[in-house]
Amino acid sequence: MDSPSRTGARWIAAAAAALLLTAGCSSGSAAPEVAGAGGSGRAKPQDDDQVRRAWVDCMHKQGQTGVEQDKDGNIGFPAARTDSGLPPGYENATRICDEKVPGIHQVQQASKAKFVEMGRKWVACARKNGYPDMPDPDPKDGIVVVPRAVFDGTKWDAAARACDPQFPMPGYRIGE
């Protein structure tokens, strides 16, 4: 059995070794600071759902209550009509909320590939379900743009009934 003085000496030696190892890993200059909580360098990962929720809340405060977040966290926008455009104040509200919630840009970029794939699946389904001349979705954002010349309400309704439950569509515009 070790004596109390020998056990204490081992603890002191272990602490000294740990101190030397820590000192050996650092240099005389300070480590570069990175974005984080108070410049501590310990940034929390962005919670995309919280960013989306904050942006939608901001849009509501700006009077744009047609902007909603679904149960999967996706943001839905009001449908734009070619004869009236977006709701009054929509673009200004977007500019304000983009500034107040800067993380929304990263969330939107990450979501674009997902939306394009969603749009492609919906269009493929629509073509199999009575709307063979349905145009491809926009490759940048997945929005399906149906020119007024090829829009057929009966075909659209049949395709929507068959495809919406299986393949949520990121958005569409009719009449361009």
Describe it for me?
The chain has helices at 4-24, 48-61, 90-100, 104-128, 153-163, and strands at 68-69, 75-76, 144-146, 172-174. It has 176 residues and is mostly helical. It has a two-stranded antiparallel ribbon. A two-stranded parallel ribbon has the order 3-4. The longest helix has 25 residues, at 104-128. The radius of gyration is 28 Å and the shape is globular. It starts with a helix and ends with a strand.
Task: Give a quick precis of the structure.
This protein is mainly α.
Give the tally of β-strands: 4
Largest sheet: 2 strands, antiparallel
Helix and strand pattern: HHEEHHEHE
3D shape: globular
- Name the helicity range: 40-55%
DSSP summary: helix tally: 5
Q: What radius of gyration results from the CA coordinates? A: 28 Å
The secondary-structure class comes to mainly alpha
Distance between the termini: 89 Å
> Oligomeric status of the shown chains?
single chain
- Whole-number mean pLDDT: 74
Query: Could you tell me the strand content as a percent range?
Result: 5-15%
Q: Can you list the strand order of the major beta sheet?
A: 1-2
Unreliable runs:
2-37
Please outline the helices and strands.
Blueprint: H1 4-24, H2 48-61, E1 68-69, E2 75-76, H3 90-100, H4 104-128, E3 144-146, H5 153-163, E4 172-174
Parallel strand pairs: 3-4
Antiparallel strand pairs: 1-2
Helix pairs in contact: 2-3, 4-5
Features:
4 strands; 47% helix; two-stranded antiparallel ribbon; two-stranded parallel ribbon; globular; 176 residues; disordered N terminus; mainly alpha
